[in-house]
Write a structure and sequence with these properties.
With 296 residues, the protein is α/β, with parallel strands linked by helices. The protein contains nine helices and 13 strands.
């Protein structure tokens, strides 16, 4: 029951400020904090903390940010046998977090941009679910999706950050996870969000989930619609919420949970991640999620 994550590995450099700077504006903030990040690494850590066996394919450099980038993966017990060290800087994300918990992120891809299809595992033995994002070169994401699809392995794609989503890739995806902005970028048809999600579902997927932040999430499948309200919390930092959702969703599906249960766990975990600063450092373990799933 291994979740294979093919994705980016970064070090995060975060500064808390009163507000997100406007174009051309300088805003004074607090001390800079370094922490592990990258959408691939974040989702791998979230999946591991939710009880799955997880392996990660990605790339880092040999610079000072390497150890920072790998710290959370090591701590969560993610299998890094297919991680590559390349002749390029480790990816770096520059994150500004406002007093309201919102964030703005600039990513320097570094080694992530140098990953190629030749770096992917030659075999997918033991892999039950593949989890992808869009921070790696598109040809890597497509190759990984094709290999899993051909092997009958469910493919979950978090279509973030927003990039072109070719039909060849979408045909290999089982479950697409997007936010409202990413859904709009797919030029989905319909007068409301649910109909737009259905129009994407009709392109051959089994499920489309739209995450809505404080409004929860909506998931459409050929058999019906799952609407889940957000778990109530007081947000401190939303940086890792989306990645937490995706990682926990993949983990719980790999553990055999029904879609409705996996979605509920993912939503609770994402909300809990907003109550602490950072991305990986804020992600809850499975015991904490379970406590909210079954309150005393």
């Amino acid at each position: 029951m291994t979740v294979l994550v093919v994705g980016s590995v970064n070090a995060d450099l975060t500064v808390r400020t009163p507000r997100i700077p406007a174009p051309g504006e300088t805003v004074l903030g607090g001390d800079a904090v370094t922490s592990p990040g990258g959408k691939g690494a974040n989702q791998a850590v979230a999946a591991a903390r939710a009880g799955a066996d997880v392996a990660l394919t990605g790339a880092v450099g040999q610079d000072a940010f390497r150890d920072v980038a790998l710290r959370g993966l090591h701590a969560a017990g993610v299998n890094l046998d297919v991680l590559h060290t390349l002749d390029a800087p480790t990816g770096l994300a520059l994150i500004t977090v406002s007093a309201q918990g919102e964030n703005a992120i600039t990513v320097a891809s570094g080694a992530n941009a140098h990953l190629t299809p030749t770096h992917l595992p030659a075999r997918l033995d033991g892999v039950t679910h593949l989890l992808l994002q869009q921070e790696l070169p598109p040809e890597v994401t497509l190759h990984a999706a094709r290999a899993a699809h051909a092997a009958g392995i469910p493919v979950l794609l978090n279509a973030a950050p927003t990039r072109d989503l070719p039909a060849d890739l979408l045909r290999c995806v089982t479950h697409l996870i997007v936010n409202e902005h990413e859904l709009a970028a797919l030029r989905a048809e319909g007068t409301n969000l649910e109909r737009q999600a259905h129009s994407v579902l009709e392109r051959g997927l089994q499920a489309v989930t739209v995450t809505l932040g404080a409004q929860g999430s909506v998931t459409v499948t050929p058999g019906g619609t799952h609407r889940l309200p957000a778990h109530p919390v007081q947000p401190v930092d939303t940086t890792g919420a989306g990645d937490t959702f995706c990682g926990v969703l993949a983990a719980r599906l790999a553990q055999g949970d029904p879609l409705s249960g996996a979605l509920r766990a993912a939503g609770i975990a994402a909300a809990l991640a907003c109550t602490r600063p950072g991305a990986q450092d804020a992600m809850p373990d499975w015991a904490e999620v379970q406590a909210s799933l079954t309150p005393a």
